[in-house]
Design a protein that fits this description.
The protein has a single domain, classed as Rossmann fold. Strands 1-2-4-3-5-6-7-8 form an 8-stranded mixed sheet, with helices on both faces. Helix content is 42%, strand content 17%. By secondary structure, it is of the alpha/beta class. The longest helix has 16 residues. The radius of gyration is 17 Å and the shape is globular. It has 11 helices and 8 strands.
Length: 270
């Protein structure tokens, strides 16, 4: 993929763009650069102008001097859209990126034409806090980067993906990526995601919203996504049978077709 570093309200952010049509902004989650959305940049750009970017501390966008917050990253996403002269976009975020997308919609509603939240939540429960606490020290204490990814991906991908070689391929790609995330950057992103709360503010979202959950997701199980959907007026909630935390990577054709149908309904197209 090719991209460029842009000035987004004084912050240098790496952006990938593909295609022509209605604007779509893709917001990645913990540790992931824009390349996490490769199957969407490839698969949706025949019908949309698709933009993905590196959040602060991931890929080519550096960490700020001050502590990261979800609100800061949401403002970055807004600055990206404005720097690219996008008046409003269909916004899709997964995991930590879905939290950024929630905040983007709450803080800059005029920029969000519709909202897709994949593997999302609005208030951490005790299991989630303990899981993310383990991730925090795991990245320091794993014997090497491969071992860290092998452990981390146990929460992220299906048993199917671990058995059929998908996870091994993703780990090889992550290890070969020329802009790896440091342990400090991983922990700096994890901290605001692990304490994120929007449940009481979600009724303020007015954009058409689709909430998707993987049936087998260990990190953000379906009941957390259902809670989000029930708090957003008119939101649609769907569970993807047999899928885990990142079906947009494991079953991209299924994911792409579902979000395309949602966006076509919003755009009034057949």
């Amino acid at each position: 993929m090719t991209g460029e570093m842009i000035d987004a309200d004084g912050t240098r952010i790496w952006v990938e763009r593909r295609g022509e049509g209605p604007d779509v902004l893709l917001v990645a989650g913990l540790g992931d650069p824009a390349e996490a959305w490769r199957a969407q940049l490839d698969g949706l750009s025949d019908y949309y102008r698709v933009t993905a970017f590196d959040n602060r501390g991931a890929g080519r966008t550096p960490l700020p001097d001050e502590p990261l917050t979800v609100a800061m990253m949401a403002d970055d996403a807004a600055a990206v859209l404005r720097a690219l002269d996008v008046r409003a976009a269909h916004v899709a975020g997964f995991s930590g990126g879905s939290l950024i997308a929630q905040e983007l919609t709450l803080r800059h509603p005029e920029l969000v034409r519709s909202l897709v939240l994949m593997s999302t939540f609005s208030r951490p429960d005790p299991y989630f806090r303990r899981m993310t606490g383990f991730w925090h020290w795991m990245v320091d204490r794993a014997p090497d980067e491969r071992a860290m990814l092998e452990a981390f991906y146990l929460w992220i991908y299906t048993r199917r993906a671990h058995a059929d070689g998908t996870v091994d391929r993703l780990i090889d790609e992550a290890l070969a990526f020329p802009h790896p995330q440091s342990a400090e950057a991983f922990q700096s992103q994890l901290a605001p995601f692990a304490t994120h709360e929007t449940l009481d503010r979600l009724p303020g979202i007015t954009a058409p919203t689709l909430v998707l959950a993987g049936e087998l997701d260990l990190a953000t199980p379906p009941h957390l996504g259902r809670q989000v959907a029930e708090a957003i007026p008119g939101a649609v909630f769907e569970v993807l049978p047999g899928e885990a935390h990142q079906p947009f990577q494991e079953v991209p054709d299924l994911f792409n077709a579902r979000v395309d149908r949602f966006w076509r309904e919003i755009d009034g197209r057949g």
